[in-house]
Amino acid sequence: QVQLVQSGAEMKKPGASVKVSCKASGYTFTDYYMHWVRQAPGQGLEWMGWIYPNSGSTKYAQKFQGRVTMTRDTSIRTTYMELSSLSSDDTAMYYCARQYSESPHDFWGQGTLVTVSS
Amino acid sequence: EIVLTQSPGTLSLSPGERATLSCRASQSVNGNYLAWYQQKPGQAPRLLIYGASSRATGFPDRFSGSGSGTDFTLTISRLEPEDFAVYYCQQYGNAPWTFGQGTKVDIK
Q: pLDDT tens for residues B59-88?
């Protein structure tokens, strides 16, 4: 069965970077885009961007341009989202979610809580 | 960027009642690529509706989606206890993909 398993919770200081991983199983990893979506405490969902594991191509939301980097390692079926220059506004649950062709996100990871605090 | 506005913010209803949730887009959604997600506390969102009206696997037929262009609706015909949750719409036809702010359906 399809599974997206994310890395554990992180606590970072302002100005630092965080790298969250998402390990996929149960489907052809390179056939699906992997998106990253975040959710601040008590708030709505915010789309951050995607990576296409087949080619490594990426597209980021303008808000995160220059601060986010999405990468993948096809040998271990894992995608990564790195966010730099963290501030308290980046405290949120970060989700990976797969997507195929002209469909939306049909499977999501369990989420990784990133807390930014001095 | 397409802005999605959901209404109402909160819907207080009793089990057995009908729920009607609205999602309005600031411009036409390409291909009617409009999805709805259900999110319960402490859980990741779960795909409910895609292509404006197609129901995802695992959801009963009391859930239905409709609409086109800029106006979309999610209807829950008779609320069951497990349906009380937050519902988000999302457009995936134009980059950047965007979400509405959510509608919370809670127990009256």
A: 999 999 999 999 999 999 999 999 999 999
